[in-house]
Design a protein that fits this description.
Elements (H helix, E strand, L loop, with lengths): L1 H35 L6 H4 L23 H18 L10 E9 L7 H15 L4 E4 L14 E8 L1 H15 L20 E5 L19 E7 L4 H10 L7
Helix pairs in contact: 3-6
């Protein structure tokens, strides 16, 4: 009997020890399993997204559109009819018109000082109302200490409304302010209906303040038309009240 009791006690002890070892193993595995589980979401993730920042208010468009330049209205209402009668055009599409105006300013002094180029670009931007494009030298010229790629000038191409506005200011304001002005030459056409003229001083334009310029610079103005001959181009510019000498 005593032997049977001792066997039962041993069996119960073995069972208890096996249970304890299994519990220890489970406890040892628990932290590993917990490490495998994904981390709990942060408060910032759980929290609902706050209201998005209000977008910046857009610039309001003007209530009224910009007025059409008066030279553009003049061309549409009067110049077309005048040229059709003068040259016998069958349709208004044959009437020549101005396609673009190009302003070109050479600034060779900018090779020695870059500030001169900045001042020239600022003056042209005021005159044209448009940011000019800086032009670079194509070839190197040792006599003038110019290398290929150096900025040596700036230019602006005007079309549409800005073109007509500039033409209006040129004819009605800038040309009368030229010193000893007696009209412009009618021989400056290139044979294809395009007209070139030079301006010695940029101060003839009212946008330039004489006290704030660093130097007096000239520029070249090219008026490009789709006229088939110089006579048609001259008649077109004369209709815009260009003051030709002859």
């Amino acid at each position: 009997m005593s032997a049977a009791k001792s066997k039962d006690t041993r069996d119960t002890k073995d069972a208890k020890s096996s249970k304890e070892t299994r519990g220890q193993q489970k406890e040892a595995r628990a932290p590993k399993e917990a490490a495998k589980q994904p981390a709990a979401p942060k408060r910032a993730r759980d929290a609902k997204p706050e209201a998005a920042e209000a977008p910046a208010p857009k610039e309001k468009r003007p209530e009224r559109p910009a007025p059409v330049p008066r030279l553009q209205v003049l061309y549409r209402d009067a110049v077309v009819k005048q040229l059709m009668q003068q040259f016998g055009y069958k349709t208004s599409m044959q009437v020549p018109r101005i396609e673009k105006i190009v302003l070109n300013m050479g600034v060779g002094e900018a090779v020695a000082d870059k500030k001169i180029m900045d001042n020239a670009v600022a003056d042209m931007a005021k005159i044209a109302g448009q940011k000019p494009l800086i032009t670079a030298a194509r070839t190197s010229i040792a006599v003038y200490k110019v290398r290929a790629g150096y900025p040596v000038g700036c230019k602006v191409t005007l079309r549409g409304r800005r073109m007509y506005e500039f033409l209006d200011r040129l004819v009605s304001i800038a040309m009368p302010r030229i010193r000893d002005f007696r009209g412009i030459s009618a021989r400056s056409f290139d044979g294809r209906g395009n007209y070139n003229m030079g301006v010695k001083e940029q101060i003839i334009f009212p946008e330039i303040e004489y006290d704030k310029i660093d130097a007096i610079r000239g520029m070249n103005i090219t008026i490009t038309t789709n006229a088939r001959s110089d006579n048609e181009a001259k008649a077109l510019l004369s209709a815009f009240r260009f003051p030709f000498r002859n």
